[in-house]
Amino acid sequence: MAEAQNFIEQIVETDLAEGRAEKIKTRFPPEPNGYLHIGHAKSMFVNFGTAKKYGGTCNLFFDDTNPTKEKTEFVDAIRSDIHWLGYSWDKEVYASDFFEIIYDYAEKLIAEGKAFVCDLSAEEIKATRGTLTEAGKESPYRNRTPEENLKLFREMRAGKYADGEKCLRAKIDMGSPNLNLRDPVIYRILHAVHHRTGNNWCIYPMYDYAHPICDALQGVTHSLCTLEFEDHRPLYDWVGINLGFAPKPRQIEFARLNVTNLVMSKRYLKKLVEDGAVHGWDDPRMPTLAGLRNRGIPAEAIRDFCSRIGVVKANSECEISYLEAVVREYLNANAPRAMAVVEPLKLTVTNYEGEEEVDFEINQMKEGAGTRKIKFGKTLYIEKGDFSLDPPPKYHRLKIGGCARLKNAYIVRCDEAVTDEHGEVTEIKCTYFPESKSGNDTSGIKAKGVLHWVNAQTCVDAELRKYDHLLKDAAYAGQDFAERMNFDSEHIFSAKAEPYLAEAEEGTAFQLMRTGYYKTCKENGKLVLSEIVSLKDNFNK
Ligand code: ATP
Ligand code: MG
Fold first, then answer.
1. Which of 67, 221, 246, 302 has the greatest number of beta carbons closer than 10 A?
2. Does residue 407 sit in helix, strand or coil?
């Protein structure tokens, strides 16, 4: 058997070994009220990953008990994001598939005197719930007979009452130290159209009541969820015991994934989209899976990240630089190399005529990646910042009289800078050394700097987009998301790129030499290079 890597796997192993489960079954339970984010990737890693590792299966379970917030658009996006991340589910199940059965179970609880219809308003229920140190107050409706409750509950279903006028509560213990057991509401009246059941229902079960039933009906053995549900477990178990499902399924909680500089709340992400603060759910700065995919982050890197941060029981916050380091590591090993110049400066090789092809290594980190040909010529572009009229000491890039190597081509010496009327350098003139060709350098000339370049004759115009984090640094932690937002987080530059980048399939990730990792796409026929992650590793190991 596979070796347990975390406390959940240990529990699963014990349950399998001791015969409490023959085959494990989990479920990934999103609510279709928004797009999945990287926190959900961790939940998927745990649910799909654990099931697979122990020969079991995982369902996709849509927790659709809040009709006013849920939409088919979100269902579709969730399905495709899960596939993109590389997981596949056994059955696709909806809480709404079970509405009729969930309702019947409520009647059963009522018949057994374990649930009652309550006329208190939501505010009154809250006010009589008590506190952590004080018991709650029993509802005056608590001792209605099962017959009366049944009649009222059926009337609730039939639409006789307005929203909030009545509700169904489990009859547990108003003195329980656990607030979740103080006669929790298990059904509410809500005259709303559901994205699947339409107008069939005007009462909807509450999550804490519906979830254990849905788990049991799916044959879930291990209901894996995040820590905020720990206090709800006694209620989960109460439902299971009173409806005769227990001891299966069992609920196990693990820590949520929090990442610095990332907003991890669907509610707030939705606000960003609605306010137009970002271009949409798939904006490359969004921590949604759609955003990460659009950013160019490979699914494999996200799965790898989830596996490396581990599954524990204590909440913590992960540095975003760690996520970036994992992505960078993946791209460094896999992304082909190419060249683009962000702030182009014309470089003329005065003693060069004609053109020739030079070999360019596709990815020196990847065995067998090989080389491709790029065209060298008389007129090139280099980065404006790679030339200085007034260089500091030990400047290895180009300066008047200084030498540098043009990547995979020749060493050049800068002889002259042409300036405009403002003193801005508009062009530099260089001499190349024919014997200094990369791979066959017999010139004996020393050049420490290696510069990237593009050929002015063959290059294409591109728009290059760089991103900052959407959320300002942890120094702002504790502040409201709204105060931490960095609205100035997208920066656009014009660039000159190798034609190779325009020819590549859209969405390909490249390492642009000395610039960063970028993804290509076309917008209105124009090449767009959009930043995936910077080159520099600022993760403090
Ligand atoms: P949000 O607070 O972002 O709206 P949620 O918990 O309401 O998230 P659900 O759609 O209910 O979102 O989540 C589906 C599953 O994913 C749940 O089991 C939930 O516990 C889990 N999940 C959500 N966010 C995280 C996270 N940051 N880390 C790990 N698991 C998460
Ligand atoms: Mg939720």
1. 302
2. coil
